[in-house]
Amino acid sequence: MMFSNAIKLFRLGGFDIKLDPSWFLIAGLITWTLSTQYFPLTLPGQTMAAYVTLAVIAMLGFFASLLLHEIAHSVVARRYGVRIKGITLFLFGGVAELESEVPTAKAELWVALAGPAMSVCLAVVFWTVSWLSELTLGAPALTIVLVYLAMINMIIAVFNMVPAFPLDGGRVLRAYLWNRHGDVLRATRIAAQSGTVFGYALMILGVLALFQGAVTAGLWYILIGFFVLAAAKSAFQNQLMQSTFEGKTVRALMIRDPVIASPELTLSAFVNQVMLAERVSFAPVVADGVLIGQIDKDVLSAIDRDNWTSTRVGDVFAGLDVAATIPPDMPIDALLKRIAETGTRKFLVVQDHKLLGVVTLANLIGHLHDTDQSNRRKVW
Ligand SMILES: [Zn+2]
């Protein structure tokens, strides 16, 4: 998940606490609902200014509680050696951005449970304090805010324990399947399916609420449904990438003995004998066993078709591009980063001026697809 516009607020316990601009929308919505509906109902006869003040205090308490929920996840994750990029509050609550996935099923379980456990503790604390304040102070406004915070923390705990990945309950489910069968990708697939079902269920609930005339609640359910659906999908994609590429180098995934072009070949021979016959869109140019460059569609399209029979590959090929030349021991992670940064999609794998193979983005996507297919066929 990316929060490129998030504002850094402060550091707490070694974590960067950030605010996504979308947070202001939900903060406003909650303050508005509390000041116009919840507090006038539970504490009648006060001024609007009093309601707004109480609403702002309760809203801030709500997000402080969410922050503590995420900090609990982060502290436990950090104990298992996972680095935390930061904790961000946004439209749908809070999220702790882990730099990598947790290392084991056991770690996943404890990281997942830490958040809801914190929320339950907070609920108990707020309830106890509200009870004490009612006994001793007799300040109904304070009691009502505290009761609200106790309730909201209980709701946070219960909602997050729904077994729908990537909610905490879904992570517990994934940890259980992962531990039981030892296959993290398959565990993630099933957990992600639970998230998909829950996402659709929320959207259906939202539509029903719309028909009942509850417009805000209805739209809200639909939005959260979309969010859970997208989050489940992207979490599975990340796991698929990790399972396919983690710890692998270019050497393991490259196409060995690629089709090459000799500089003597005419362009029409290159098109017919290499591009069309071998179904490739580019070819390394090799002379006497030494890699000298490459030729692709872009080079061809710059040459008039009438001249293809009289022009040779050696006259027009593109020289070696540093960005497109990679060593065989380059980790796939680094290659993916290079693709994202430079937009280059075809690479020549070179060692000591010798061509060992080629790697293309399509080739990498093919590996993802293969991992996905073989994992899909596994039965527990
Ligand atoms: Zn959580």
TrEMBL record:
Example of a GO MF term: metal ion binding
Membrane-spanning parts: 21-42, 48-68, 110-129, 141-162, 190-211, 218-236
Membrane topology: Multi-pass membrane protein
SMART domains tied to this protein: CBS
GO biological process entries: proteolysis
Every CBS domain range: 319-374
Catalytic site positions: 70
InterPro entries attached to this UniProt entry: CBS_dom, CBS_dom_sf, Peptidase_M50, UCP006404_Pept_M50_CBS
Cofactors required: Zn(2+)
Gene3D superfamilies cross-referenced by the UniProt entry: CBS-domain
GO cellular component terms listed in the entry, alphabetical order: plasma membrane
Cofactor binding note: Binds 1 zinc ion per subunit.
Keywords, sorted A to Z: CBS domain, Cell membrane, Hydrolase, Membrane, Metal-binding, Metalloprotease, Protease, Repeat, Transmembrane, Transmembrane helix, Zinc
Family, similarity comment: Belongs to the peptidase M50B family.
Protein name in UniProt: Zinc metalloprotease
Lineage: Bacteria, Pseudomonadati, Pseudomonadota, Alphaproteobacteria, Rhodobacterales
